[in-house]
């Protein structure tokens, strides 16, 4: 399919709702960040359920997100 050089195709990014993230105890920050970044990029909020062994790691990442200026909710 050929398009003329003056044509433009836009793909709108719209939030679809809340994203749930259930993370393992290993590599918690990496897994959580890999789910958080795409959700925030399109405007979705994220609810995280960290492993019972590592709740403070998720809390520390939440503090960093707040310091970065990302609004809660």
Mean pLDDT: 85
> What overall geometry do the principal axes of the alpha carbons give?
elongated
Order of helices and strands: EHEH
Q: Reading side by side through the largest sheet, how are the strands ordered? A: 1-2
Share of β-strand residues:
5-15%
Radius of gyration: 17 Å
**Structural class by helix and strand composition:** alpha+beta
Helical coverage, percent range = 25-40%
- Main sheet overview: 2 strands, parallel
Low-confidence stretches: none
Helix segment tally: 2
Query: What is the distance, rounded to the nearest whole angstrom, between the alpha carbons of the first and last residues?
Result: 42 Å
In total, the number of strands is 2
Walk me through the structure.
37% of the residues lie in helices and 11% in strands. It has a two-stranded parallel sheet with strand order 1-2. It is of the alpha+beta class and 73 residues long. It is elongated, with a radius of gyration of 17 Å. The protein has a domain at 25-67. Strand 1 (19-22), helix 1 and strand 2 form a beta-alpha-beta unit. It contains two helices and two strands. It has helices at 28-41, 55-67, and strands at residues 19-22, 46-49. The longest helix has 14 residues, at 28-41. The mean pLDDT is 85.
Features:
single chain; 2 strands; elongated; two-stranded parallel ribbon; oxidoreductase; alpha+beta; 73 residues
What is the gist of this entry?
The chain has a domain at 25-67. Helix content is 37%, strand content 11%. It has helices at residues 28-41, 55-67; strands at 19-22, 46-49.
């Amino acid at each position: 399919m050929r398009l003329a050089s003056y044509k433009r195709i836009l793909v709108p990014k719209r939030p679809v709702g809340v994203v749930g993230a259930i993370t393992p105890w290993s590599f918690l920050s990496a897994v959580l960040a890999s789910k958080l970044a795409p959700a925030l990029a399109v405007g979705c909020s994220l609810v995280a359920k960290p492993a019972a062994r590592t709740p403070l790691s998720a809390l520390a990442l939440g503090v960093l997100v707040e310091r970065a200026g990302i609004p809660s909710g």
